[in-house]
Specification:
This protein is an all-alpha fold. The protein has a domain of 187 residues: Orthogonal Bundle (ABC transporter involved in vitamin B12 uptake, BtuC). 75% of the residues lie in helices and 0% in strands. It has eleven helices and no strands. Helix 3 runs antiparallel to helix 4. The protein starts with a helix and ends in a 27-residue tail after the last helix.
Length: 283
């Protein structure tokens, strides 16, 4: 029988994967990988502020990530820099400020490696409750805005003409990404969150025939990666968080290999938004 800490890690990790998969699909479709990376870097600033103010880390990380998202919107309208330049500025600035603040807090013992790469084996029943409770909320909201968000992803102008209010959907989606990062930070760490969002979704793309199917497959691939990564970590005594990402990477590599002849005539019909769609408007 598996140890209790391993069972809790599996339950918590699968909870994160089930949420990160569908959210990651929109990140892939909208070419927002750097945006997710920016929010994950800002999570370390949230950790520093939480420790400084003696507040709940998950809540503060969520608030800081939302503030960074809104700051990006403001800068996009007022600054003359491109979106990728602004994302790079915010990502490295928030990470650096967070590290500096932590360095000044000499009275607090900080497990920096745990925040950077996660410590899924230390997950508690309370953490599991937060992960699954927050995950259910995120998936419910995502399902509610799915139509308008997907329409804005395919063609922003057409979505506006149809009255789908894509700007509101974009803001809500940014908040959802911040929520996913806040609840998953303890498991895979600041530096690996984006990988858990992107790799399972990228793996699912080849095997999906519709956007909804891609979201489901991405969640399943993420759950499988969690299980394989934790088993490998237990077997070979490797870091749990990076092991999960490596397992997800192996799944992706297998997905891009040539399919057997059995599948040669069954290439799935593509319905996902094209990466080259000119109508996509980033938040």
């Amino acid at each position: 029988m598996l140890d209790d800490f391993f069972t809790r890690a599996v339950i918590g990790g699968i909870g994160v994967a089930l949420v990160a998969g569908p959210v990651g699909c929109f990140i892939i479709w909208r070419r927002l990988a750097y945006f997710g990376d920016t929010l994950s870097h800002s999570a370390l600033l949230g950790v520093a502020m939480a420790l400084l103010l003696e507040l709940n880390i998950t809540i503060v990380v969520f608030v800081v990530s939302v503030v960074v998202s809104l700051l990006l919107l403001v800068l996009q309208k007022r600054a003359t820099l491109s979106s990728d330049a602004l994302l790079g500025l915010l990502a490295h600035a928030t990470l650096a400020v967070g590290l500096v603040v932590l360095a000044f807090m000499t009275w607090v013992r900080v497990d920096l490696m745990g925040f950077l790469f996660g410590d899924i084996l230390a997950v508690t029943p309370m953490d599991i409750g937060v992960i699954w409770g927050g995950g259910i909320i995120v998936l419910a909201v995502l399902a509610y805005i799915w139509r308008s968000l997907f329409a804005a992803t395919v063609n922003y102008d057409l979505a506006t003409a149809e009255g789908e209010r894509p700007d509101v959907a974009n803001i809500i989606f940014m908040v959802l990404v911040a929520a996913v990062i806040a609840v998953s930070m303890k498991l895979v760490g600041v530096l690996l969150i984006t990988a858990l969002l992107i790799i399972p979704a990228a793996t699912a793309r080849r095997f999906s025939a519709s956007p909804e199917q891609m979201a489901v497959i991405a969640a399943l691939v993420g759950g499988l990666s969690v299980w394989l990564g934790l088993r490998g970590s237990l077997e070979w005594d490797t870091p749990a968080g990076p092991s999960i990402v490596v397992a997800a990477l192996v799944c992706f590599v297998l997905s891009v290999m040539p399919m057997p002849k059995l599948w040669a005539g069954r290439e799935p019909r593509r319905q996902q938004p094209s990466d080259r769609s000119s109508g996509v408007k980033e938040p």
